[in-house]
Every structure is written in structure tokens, then in C-alpha cells.
Amino acid sequence: MLEAEEQSVEIALRNYGWIGRRQFCLFLTGLLLMQFMCVTALRGAQSLTAVLLIVGVGAVLLALQMLVAALRLQHIGYGRLWVWVLLVPPLNAVILLQCITAAKGCHQHSKYDTGGLIGLAVLLGCLMTLGGLLVVVWKG
Question: Domain boundaries in the chain?
Fold first, then answer.
């Protein structure tokens, strides 16, 4: 009984960082939009200098995405080294889903809150809608 109380105090005192679900989604959306603009600009680039500049900006944006993901992983209780799992295609979807839906310290206490469950439902609804649109466009 005493050990359980000590563990709960230890978990409460951990430094989880500051980036929550909302900040993560906003930062990641902004960075993804900027990367999309870089890819669009890369299509119209005429000189080698422009291509190198755009690729450099894209690399900086990718590094910022990795940093934001590392901070969010720390916030949900994972180590920052888990950010490298984002480079493995089947696992990156699972880690990003955790980053979007998990509450603070979720990796230690394995409890989801209402906000995370609502976020999961919205995300799955958006994915199903996108899948339906892709089927309609593909068949039509």
C-alpha cells in the first residue's frame, strides 16, 4: 500500500513537458502545410539554387516535426528516442495516433480521458470520410 502511494507521487512529480494534444496538432498541421508549400514550390523551381534552398527549408521543417513529436512523446510518458519509430511506416501510424489521442503521462498509467476518446472518434470519422471520397473519385 505504501509502495503504491510512493509510485503515484513519483508519477505526479515527473516532468512530462508542456506540449499537449492541441499544441501538437496545431504545430504539426502548420509544419505540414509549410512542407506542402515547399513541395509545390519545388515543382516550379527553375534553377539549382532554388531547388537546394527549397530542399534545405524542407529538411529544417522535417527536423522541427521530429522535435515537436519528441516533445509530445515526452509529454505522454515515452522517451524522446521513440521519435525514431516515426521512420518505420507501420509503427509511425500507431505512434502518431498515441500523440494525437493520449493524455499526459498515458504511457505510465494507461488511462484515456474523454478528450482523447473524442479525438479518436473524430480522427477515425475523418479517415473514413477520406476513404469514401477516394473510393468515389477512383470509381468515378
Answer: 2-112
